[in-house]
Specification:
Pfam families: MGAT2. It is an enzyme of class 2 (transferase). Keywords: Disulfide bond, Glycoprotein, Glycosyltransferase, Golgi apparatus, Manganese, Membrane, Metal-binding, Signal-anchor, Transferase, Transmembrane, Transmembrane helix. The protein is α/β, with parallel strands linked by helices and 434 residues long. It has one domain: Spore Coat Polysaccharide Biosynthesis Protein SpsA, Chain A. Helix content is 31%, strand content 13%. It is built from eleven helices and 14 strands. Strands 3-2-1-4-8-6-9-7-14 form a nine-stranded mixed sheet, sandwiched between helices. Strand 2, helix 4 and strand 3 form a beta-alpha-beta unit. The structure holds 2-acetamido-2-deoxy-beta-D-glucopyranose (2 copies).
Amino acid sequence: MAINQKPRLKDSALRRFKLVILVTLLGFLLFMILMETNLFQNFGPWFSDNIREDPYAGFGRFDSNDVLKLPKQTELSVRLEKRNRLPLRNLDLYPNLAKDHIPIVLYVHNRPQYLRVVIDSLSKVTGISETLLIVSHDGYFEEMDKLVQNIRFCSVKQIFAPYSPHLFPNSFPGVSPTDCKGKHYPMITTNCRGNPDQYGNHRLPKIVSLKHHWWWMMNTVWDGLEETRGLSGHILFIEEDHFILPNAYRNLQLLVTLKPKKCPECHAVNLAPSDVKSRGEGNNFLVAERMGNIGYAFNRSVWKKIHKKAKEFCFFDEYNWDITMWATVFPSFGSPVYSLRGPWTSAIHFGKCGLHQGQDEGDVCIDNGLLNIDVKDIDEVVNINSEWPVEVFRGQPGYGAGFRGWGGWGDERDRQLCLNFAQMYRSMPNVSRL
Ligand SMILES: *[C@@H]1O[C@H](CO)[C@@H](O)[C@H](O)[C@H]1NC(C)=O
Ligand SMILES: *[C@@H]1O[C@H](CO)[C@@H](O)[C@H](O)[C@H]1NC(C)=O
C-alpha cells in the first residue's frame, strides 16, 4: 500500500531531512578522524571485531612467574572444570589403590568407536583393578563421556581440559571471529588477530588442540590433581587408539623395577617399540631406544626436567606434541633420552581400515567396531625376563639440529596459553588446583 503512495514532502520536512544528512556526514567525518588517530583503541570493548580485544590483556611477558591470565571461560568450560574436582569413580568397588600402583592416563578426543575398543582391552589387563585410570578429555562429547562413566573394572578419575578449543565456539582458544584465516600476506593490512607460522599459515583451533591438551594434561596430572600430584613414581600414558594387551600392566611394573639396574641412563619405559609399525623383535633381550609415543611411562624427576623446558615446548613452531618433544625438549637434556622396553609389544596403535594412504595389509585397523587384533598366548602373561641383557639402539633416525618444525604453532596466543598451563598450578596454588 505504502509503495503506491507518492511521498508528499512539506518544506519543513525537507529542511529537517537535509539537517539529518548534514549531521550524519559530520559524524562520519569525525569517526574517520578518530580511526586515523587510533583514539578508538580505548573503546575496544564496543567493537566486537576490534583486533585489540585481547584474551591476555595485561599479560605481557612470556616468562612471567607471577602474572597468569587464562582466556575467559565459557559456561560449559566452567561446568566441566567443576566436574574435574569430583571424587574418584568406583570407590565402592575399589576403596583402596594398591601400594606403588602405576596410574594410567588415557587421553582422548572424539572417537567413540575407538575408545570402546580401548576400554574393552583395558578391562582384560591383568592387575588393572589395582590401579587408577585417569581419562582426560579434549572437548566434551556425550558418547565419550558415557563410555567412561560406564567403566567398572577399576578406579576412575575423569577430567576435561577446560581450555580445549572445542569448548570455545566463538572465542580464543576456539575459532574467533577476529582470527586471521588461511595464508598471511604481510603486504595487505588485515583487520584480524593472530601470527602466522613460519610457513605463513594461521592457527587452526582443531589442530592446535592436540598439543594444548597433551600439555594441559601433563601439568594437571603431575602438579594439579590431588590424586596424583604427591606421587613420585611412574605414570603411564596411552591414547584413544592404543589397544592394550593383557600383560601390559605386569610388564610395565617389571620394566619399572628393572630400569635402575638394567638401564640407568633410560628416562622412561615403553610398552611398544618407537617404530609404530613394529610389534617387537621377539628375541631374548630388552631394548633401550628412542622414547616412543605409544604407552610411555616416566617418573616425577623426568617430569620436572620436562617442565623446566616449558619455553622450548611452547615456542617451537610444531603442532605435534611428540615431534616437539623429540626435536627440542629431549635434545635440550644434554644426553640421549632412552626408554626401556621388552622384545614384544604390549600396546598396539590402530586406525580405521583403508583410511591411511599406503596402508599395508598387515596394519591393525578397525571396521564396524571390530578390530583385527588376535591376542596370542604370549600377550597374556609377563613376557620379559629379568636375566636378559639390554640391547641399546643407538643413532636411530630422528629430528636433527636444523629441524625447525612443521609449523601450525606460530600464534603468540597459543604459545602464551601453553606457558600458562605450565604456570597455573605453581603461581596460584590455592586457586587453580583441582
Ligand atoms: C626417576 O627416573 C630417573 C630416570 O630413569 C631416575 O634417574 C630417577 O632416579 C628416578 N627417580 C625416582 C624418584 O625414582
Ligand atoms: C595458600 O594456602 C597455604 C596453606 O593452606 C597458605 O599458607 C597460603 O597463605 C595460601 N596462599 C594464598 C595466596 O592464599
